[in-house]
Amino acid sequence: MHRVGSEATLVASRSAVSELGRWRKTIARQAWTNLLLIRAAPTEWDVEGRLGSGVTLPLSEVHEAEVAQAIARLDGTELRSLFVAPDACSRAVASLVTDSTGVKAKEVADLAEVDLGLWDGSLLADIAERHPTAVKQWRDDVYSVTPPNGEPAAAARARLCEGIWRTLAKLVDTDPGIGIVLRPLAFDVFRSFLKREPCGFGPGEQGTCIHEWVEIETARLKAERSRIGA
Questions:
Q1: How do 211-217 and 32-39 pair as beta strands?
Q2: How far out from the chain centre does Cα 98 lie?
Q3: In whole angstroms, what is the distance from residue 117 CA to residue 134 CA?
Q4: Angle formed at CA 100 by CA 27 and CA 190, multiple of 5 degrees
Q5: What distance in Å separates the CA atoms of residue 134 and residue 131, rounded to the nearest whole number?
Q6: Reading across the β-sheet that carries 81-84, which strands appear in turn?
């Protein structure tokens, strides 16, 4: 009986290894992937101009209908999978996408908002009064300043790439249309990486739910994730 169990375990292990190998071959063949980036906003803090990363807040009730209209206008005909950051606002926006497209959402921890450390929960205007130079630099280039006890933007970018790479590696479709729902700063950091553009933080723009299809070369995700030793 013990031998039979061992053989069954060995067969199961070989099957798992074979499945992992198939995933890796799939992602290797998939030179480009279509991503639908969706910014999850606004929360009440977004509306107030208050920075929020460590606190999970729901979608603003006042703006829910507006966001629903924006989501209803998105082109989701090619959408096959939907992955969402682990916070209440992102889940609410993902739910609207599901209602519009029928594609179910899956939460991914590595898609969380950039950690703003001691700035979290503060009004950006108040921080600007105390640290005008640092905030001006951060607004122009989020990579130039890291909030006290916060997450460097470069580390957040690598984390996001790691999470999305692992997500792609588990998909069977060789040319998937993947939706990614992110909070504002994570959205801007990842979008600027994909489009090879500078990344600033314009607080007046962060309270808007927007969406955009972007094509990504998967080799760039693989290279970026290596920055955190993946």
A1: antiparallel
A2: 17
A3: 15
A4: 45
A5: 6
A6: 105-107, 81-84, 177-182, 32-39, 211-217
**C-beta separation of 189 from 160 below 8 A:** yes
Angle between helices 88-101 and 64-72 (to 10 degrees): 40
Q: What are phi and psi of 179, to 5 degrees?
A: -95, 135
Strands 105-107, 81-84: pairing is parallel
Length of the chain: 230
Q: Report whether 49 contacts 65 (CB < 8 A).
A: no
Report pTM: 0.83
Which two three-digit tokens encode residue 224?
């970026």
Please report which residue ranges of 30-131 form alpha helices under DSSP H: 44-48, 64-72, 88-101, 124-130
> What secondary structure letter does DSSP report for 50?
B
Q: pLDDT tens across 44-81, in order? A: 999 999 998 888 899 999 889 989 998 988 877 789 89
